[in-house]
Amino acid sequence: MSVSTDVGSTSQRLLPARAVPEDLDAHLAGFGPRPHLEAVAMLDALDASGLRGRGGADFPTGVKWRAVREHTGRGGDAVVVANAAECEPASFKDRFLLTYRPHLVLDGLEHAAEAVGARRVVIYTTKSHTDVEAALRAAIRERRRRDDSDRFIDVLVGPNRYVAGEETALVSRVSGHLAKPKVVPPRPFQSGVDHLPTLVQNVETLAHAALIARFGAPWFRSVGTERSPGTALLTVSGAVRTPGVLEAACDTTVGDIVDRAGGVDGEPATVLLGGYFGRWVAADRIWNKTIDALSLQSVGASLGTGVLLVATATTCGISETDRVLTFLASQTAGQCGPCHVGLPAIAETFHKVATGRARPAAIDLLVRWSHDIRGRGACRHPDGAMLFLASAMEVFAADLRHHLKNGSCRYSGQRPLLPIPATDAGWW
Ligand SMILES: Cc1cc2nc3c(=O)[nH]c(=O)nc-3n(C[C@H](O)[C@H](O)[C@H](O)COP(=O)(O)O)c2cc1C
Ligand code: SF4
Known about the structure:
Elements: E1 2-3, H1 24-31, H2 39-49, H3 61-75, E2 79-84, H4 93-100, H5 102-116, E3 120-126, H6 130-146, E4 153-158, H7 167-174, E5 198-202, H8 203-215, H9 217-221, E6 231-238, E7 244-249, H10 254-260, E8 268-273, E9 279-282, H11 283-286, H12 293-297, E10 307-312, H13 317-330, H14 337-340, H15 342-354, H16 361-372, H17 381-395, H18 397-406
Bound molecules: flavin mononucleotide and iron/sulfur cluster (SF4).
Flavin mononucleotide binds next to strand 5.
């Protein structure tokens, strides 16, 4: 993986111009000290900026900070948790940001704590991200030595499981319990870590907030679109020549982003956008679309976790989907029937279709089941998995019928394109 070095570009905000991790001296030399904003000014700036969460849900950040602050007002204390779990296998953006610019995220965390009135501040990462954990601990030590912060920022490590980064799972782990999602309401902003109002925010979102505090909402809005202002971090991979993490203004087209990643090795056929809760889209439908929410919505896609994975016609979309579905089914927290029982049944049926061991009716069954289990889990795990499946069944419809009849295709024996990580057995 590489880091984009787009020196001086207005679309290069979160990532440093040179791919060198920034210590506190370099951070202060580049950005100056963190400004001290009154809570009201910070919240107003966030609202005016139009910043939305970069952890997948695209929720307005200002609205969330206000909701936590309102609840803090009733009880007097709150908790802020930076979500650095990055459990999405095809995403590296959060780890990149934390490796190269940890202090920007820590600045954002401190702004968040001040704005919502939190005494406890935690960064939650995952067991397998040991390098990130070390970088964070070193950055926190640097700040404490400087006495730049009187706030104790804790680093907490959760299990390496897909759903352990979901906000209620993370709240449960930070409260000392298993990292399994919980039924909502109450949502974390109402009652989260140790029953206190809790702000859970993706680390990229926090870094944007730190820049907004320094440079203001109009600066943030000077790139991107009205609905999706600013820039976004993307993990570009698959059949591109220079896979890596890059930052792009939200009015950049998919084609331009792929060009910045060295272009495609072959003819692009499909794009997986948003990660394993995202959608497959035919390349010719999405190539000229900008990555802002409205533009992507017009082809049924969303930026999700910022994963942009390009596949060529020599990639077997059915084998790839088969492997991902099996992985997602294995990641259920086992608490809700439709997810615990439904996902493995769907993955198994898809596998039978993919390997030519099913009747034609299995395809209709898959379509029905994929609708039946949506909205029936405590968290969005089954919904995300089913959106991924539905897009595969649409984009690779002809291939699916071919597999049903023949059990494979000329590309199904190729080296897998989509990563499937090893995960922990436990939830601690
Ligand atoms: C199954 C599942 C896994 C998730 N994993 C992550 C994750 O690894 N990192 C993350 O930032 N958000 C993850 N989320 C989203 C969080 O629940 C939450 O919406 C997010 O951290 C909020 O931050 P944001 O508003 O800045 O996006 C996940 C959601 C679901 C449903
Ligand atoms: S929907 Fe699945 S992953 Fe989410 S809480 Fe229920 S069993 Fe766990």
